Amino acid sequence: MNYDDIDADGFGRSLRGLGLNILVRDVREQVAFLAKVFGMTAHQPTDDFAIISYGSQVFQLHSDSTYSSNPLLGLVPENPPRGAGLEIRLYDTDPDGACARATGLGGTILQSPTDKPHGLREAYILCANGYAWVPSRPKG
Question: Is residue 3 one of the residues assigned to a domain?
Fold first, then answer.
């Protein structure tokens, strides 16, 4: 599917399985963070929306303003962390490299890259919107 050319109706009709939509204050800022830290690709980014791809996975970013009539917006805290309790796990991203790139881009390292007993080396990076991104790879 060509996410750069698809219209909203076609994109919506194509979605299947489990979806992830992340509300952010500034879509373009979040797009830049995801691209620079995790190598994600943004498709059709605007001030209000972007389709994000990570490998074969796809998810969406929406600005708060696009949710003005949605009941969920009233539950989103004004101050981070917005996504408390949510881990967005990126199993194909080197945690050491991601932490190095996140520094200076508004990312907060909650946990430096660590070898875990469940077979992964992982880190916890909080973005400026307060979501916990967990880059990880199998231990070497």
Answer: no
